[in-house]
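hey m, so remember when u said the tokens were messed up on ur end? i reran from scratch. heres the input so u can diff it against urs
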Amino acid sequence: MPNVNIKRVKSSDIEFIDRLVSIQRVTKVTKGGRTFSFSAVVVVGNEQGVVGFGLGKAQEVTSAIAKGIDDAKKNLIKVPILHGTLPHEQDGKYSGAKVFLKPAAPGTGVIAGGAMRAVLESVGVKDVLAKSKGSSNPHSVVKATINALIQLRDPYTIAQLRGVDLNKVFNG
């Protein structure tokens, strides 16, 4: 992964919407029999450029989801959104999951599958074309999508780094 600035966000005064990506029943077989527990992957976001994901494990479904939400609020990132879409194309990878995100014209909507859709809707992207390649494991797909979103760069900060005056560019 290239040298990327990760913008962490404090979750104290932001209102979040949580989305359950997947829930699995996990079985542990011991000498005394089987023990069942649940694992939940949850994505939270404010639909204005802040998103996070978390994994919760517990004996009950509701507890697992609550733990996942708490974990997600600890791992928040800020994502640049430009006119309801992404600023540029981006690839993301985690383990066996690979994702490709591409900006789309207004009115296109979120063209993405399951786990990617939850992340992109939580971050507040309205128009995007996305493709998931490789593993379809929801946990890996969510992490690959977050990885791609972390690598996105805002055009205004890039212009500032390059020394370009945007007022001259847009106003002649």
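this time it looks ok to me. Helices lie at 61-74, 114-123, 138-151, 155-162, 166-171. if urs says something different then somethings off w ur setup not the seq
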